[in-house]
Design brief:
128 residues; alpha+beta; four-stranded antiparallel beta sheet; 22% strand
Length: 128
């Protein structure tokens, strides 16, 4: 009876220590994107008129559709962002409600395993 208790206790100690280390090393943030305020509600907003800033991003490292999907997910996890990634052209169209810094976009793309080569500001749909 005592050995079962020791095994269960040891298991929980190892599990909690591992989770604490993962949190410290930010591994859990890489596995699942953080839930930022507004990100869940903004993901469903696909009305182009709601987004006042647009960027075209040329990507490096998009070797498969799954990589393109990862980049899209990372960008869409940012608050107020609606991004679509074209695998064939290796580019992303990023629509933003508020202008985000290029370093935030680079960090999101880097977390997906790719790099930003070129960014170009586009006019909004109304100005075209």
């Amino acid at each position: 009876m005592q050995s079962k208790w020791m095994i269960v206790t040891g298991f929980w100690i190892i599990l909690l220590t591992t989770l604490r280390l993962f949190r410290r090393w930010r591994i859990l943030d890489e596995i699942r994107p953080s839930k930022t305020i507004g990100s869940n509600t903004d993901r469903g907003d696909h009305d182009p008129t709601h987004y006042s800033h647009r960027l075209q991003i040329i990507l490096d490292g998009v070797d498969s559709r799954s990589t393109a999907h990862r980049v899209e997910q990372r960008l869409n996890a940012l608050p107020g962002v609606w991004a679509t990634v074209d695998y064939a052209k290796k580019e992303a169209l990023v629509r933003m409600k508020l202008e985000l810094s290029e370093t935030k976009l680079q960090e999101a793309v880097r977390m997906a395993g790719c790099l930003i080569l070129i960014t170009r500001k586009l006019k909004t749909e109304e100005e075209r």
